Amino acid sequence: MSEAHTTEDTAGGNAEVADHPESNRYEVHVDGALAGFADYQRGPGQIAFTHTEVDSAFSGRGLAGRLARKALDDAKAAGNEVLPFCPFFRGFIAKHPEYLELVPVDRRSEFDL
Question: What is the CATH number of the domain that holds 24?
Answer without folding.
Answer: 3.40.630.30
